[in-house]
Design a protein that fits this description.
Two copies of one chain form a homodimer. By secondary structure, chain A is mostly helical. The first copy, chain A, contains six helices and two strands. Chain A has a two-stranded antiparallel ribbon. In chain A, a hairpin with a 5-residue loop joins strand 1 and strand 2. The longest helix of chain A has 33 residues. Chain A is elongated and about 70 Å long. At the A-B interface, helix 3, helix 4, helix 5 and helix 6 of A face helix 3, helix 4, helix 5 and helix 6 of B. The first copy, chain A, binds a DNA duplex through helix 2.
Chain lengths: 131, 131
DNA sequence: ATGGACCCTGTAGTCACTACAGGGTCAAGC
DNA sequence: GCTTGACCCTGTAGTGACTACAGGGTCCAT
């Protein structure tokens, strides 16, 4: 059981110290033991748990989804269908965002193509926005 | 100069009443005249301005960018280069988001393809997240 | 005169952090 | 033994772009 300080944990997981304390505050990470000087003292289990959280965040899961994934991953015998459902929800949300952003990009590209670098008075971009 | 109530304005621009008051509070929309009963009284100019804001929001511009676009659009004789720059910044940000989300989608799709609907203990999705 | 639809202000909540302010702890160097 | 500086603590407030009340006032029709 090595003692890991919050700064070490932050560095080893690529998280900011404040973010770790935030995760603890909202109950996503369990509060660790404290040293005599009231410093947080983490161990390898905490490191694993935080790595999990950060990887899931990188994959676009919300903190609520991660909370659920964490509690599911503790019930080893359960079917992983619930995990699948959460992942699929996440995927659907991501695909929706991609579609919206792609439509946006196309519209903006069109607008920019029409720009003739004249004065503001005959700017196509502003035209497109005006009523 | 027709009198337009905040509710009418909201309906005609597809904005919520609270959002209009919020735009006024942050100085994005000018405060309108008031009626005897202290109700906000808008006119066609306000309608145009709010439509502009909403359209720009739909195109992914931030409120700060919109603030700049609005002030630029008032200087009719100026070169529209600055408008172009803002639009290009917006486009670049959108393209960055699309790239990130696409990478995310591919990773998630891979993970989901590997799901064999077993127990949580051998769930590939959780494996990928665990340290 | 009363009901309901609308309006007002002000404040707090959302998400996932981030940034202080104002202090305490600890190890190294002098 | 003392100081310096890096680290840590709590608590609060800020970010963007809204959204959602609470607790009241206004207006118009019945």
């Amino acid at each position: 059981m090595a003692h890991i300080s919050i700064g070490d944990l932050a560095q080893r997981t690529g998280t900011k110290v404040e973010t770790i304390r935030y995760y603890e505050r909202i109950g996503l990470l369990q509060a660790p033991a404290r040293t005599a000087g009231n410093y947080r003292s983490y161990d390898e289990a905490h490191l694993g748990r935080l790595s999990f959280v950060r990887r899931a965040r990188d994959l676009g899961f919300s903190l609520d989804q991660i909370r659920e994934l964490l509690s599911l991953s503790d019930e080893r015998d359960r079917s992983c269908e619930a995990v699948d459902v959460i992942a699929r929800q996440n995927l659907a949300a991501i695909e929706r965002k991609i579609r919206n952003l792609t439509a946006l990009r196309d519209e903006l590209t069109d607008l920019l193509d029409q720009c003739r670098r004249g004065t503001v008075a005959d700017c196509r971009i502003l035209d497109a926005l005006a009523p």
